[in-house]
Amino acid sequence: MDWTRGQTIGHGSTAAVSVAKSRFSDEVFAVKSVELSQSQLLQKEQKILSQLSSSYVVSYKGYDVTKENDKLMFNLMMEYMPDGTLSDEIRKQGGRINEPLIGYYTKQILKGLEYLHSGGIAHCDIKGQNILLGKTGAKIADFGCARWIDPAERDGGAEPIGGTPMFMAPEVARGEEQGCPADIWGLGCTIIEMVTGGSPWTNVTNAASLLYKIAFSGQSPEIPKFLSLQARDFLSKCLRRDPKERWIAKQLLKHTFLEEFNLNSNSNQNFVTSSPTSILDQDIWNSVEESETTILQTGSSPLQRVRELCSNSGELNWRWNDDERWITIRSSNR
């Protein structure tokens, strides 16, 4: 496929995401790119994404290898979502999304998680920045930390622990296990992000104390008291510290909190209203919660894991402008 690369719309630890356009059909899509020599994780993401097909997961468009500026680049092509991330939407809504819209997005995310989990895949990095929005609502994206739950599907060796510290489940922070229950915990933290515009964990001053608190304090994120009884009960089912006690996606989809939300609607505009800002512990939210996704190997000590998790920071920006410069890319023959 010949295609044209547009503006960079996102950055990860190694890969960059650009908007792109086919030279033959003018189809617009997103391309995640990294140097071929450093593309092991992106190739794993491609392998997982290529096997998925769901209305609630960003769709796979293909991949290729190109030569740009004398460098071989591995490119993963996927659906372009024009309305940015859920975190963008939270900011647009003044820092807090109203409860009906929270329920609408939550049901869509859960539909995506039910699909993934039923197929034996855990996403391992559920957060607002990895939920993309378009005309049909929310879709799960960024499978850089995803893993197959069935050991037979693995390529061999221990799967690395990955994710974003602020959204990690206790068992993940301790380096014990990372599976489907961790996605449900991440969903709970993402709901709190939608509710407050801020951190699911307050009164933490640095990433090391944050990881220790998640792993060993015995506490769960505080559930805002101004939510409805149904919403508070739903969150309590997501944020149980024991992963065996957390509800699974299929159970949560039947919860009374989500009963009224119809996913067949092509518009969520009836749910959108302006809400007052409610930002909690803004400094730690900027420096820790939205920290870049981190990958670390299992087997390291708890202290080493905490240090590694504290090392990166960054933020995705999925917006782009029509008047940005485009670069023509021609794929190498495969």
Question: Which key phrases capture this entry?
Answer:
disordered C terminus; 6-stranded antiparallel beta sheet; 2 domains; Transferase(Phosphotransferase), domain 1; globular; 12 strands; 334 residues; alpha+beta; Phosphorylase Kinase, domain 1
Topology of helices and strands:
Layout (H helix, E strand, L loop, with lengths): L1 E10 L4 E7 L5 E8 L4 H10 L10 E9 L2 E9 L6 H7 L6 H20 L2 E2 L8 E4 L2 E4 L6 E2 L12 E3 L6 H4 L6 H17 L10 H10 L12 H10 L10 H4 L29 H8 L4 E3 L5 H8 L17 E4 L4
Antiparallel strand pairs: 1-2, 1-12, 2-3, 3-5, 4-5, 6-9, 7-8, 10-11
Describe the structure.
This protein is an alpha+beta fold. It has two domains: 2-80 and 321-330, Phosphorylase Kinase, domain 1 (2-Layer Sandwich); 86-309, Transferase(Phosphotransferase) domain 1 (Transferase(Phosphotransferase), domain 1), CATH 1.10.510.10. The chain is 29% helix and 19% strand. The chain has helices at 40-49, 86-92, 99-118, 170-173, 180-196, 207-216, 229-238, 249-252, 282-289, 302-309; strands spanning 2-11, 16-22, 28-35, 60-68, 71-79, 121-122, 131-134, 137-140, 147-148, 161-163, 294-296, 327-330. A six-stranded antiparallel sheet has the order 4-5-3-2-1-12, with helices on one face. The chain has a two-stranded antiparallel sheet with strand order 6-9. Strands 7-8 form a two-stranded antiparallel sheet. Helix 3 (99-118) runs antiparallel to helix 5 (180-196).
Structure described in brief:
This is mitogen-activated protein kinase kinase kinase. By secondary structure, the protein is an alpha+beta fold.
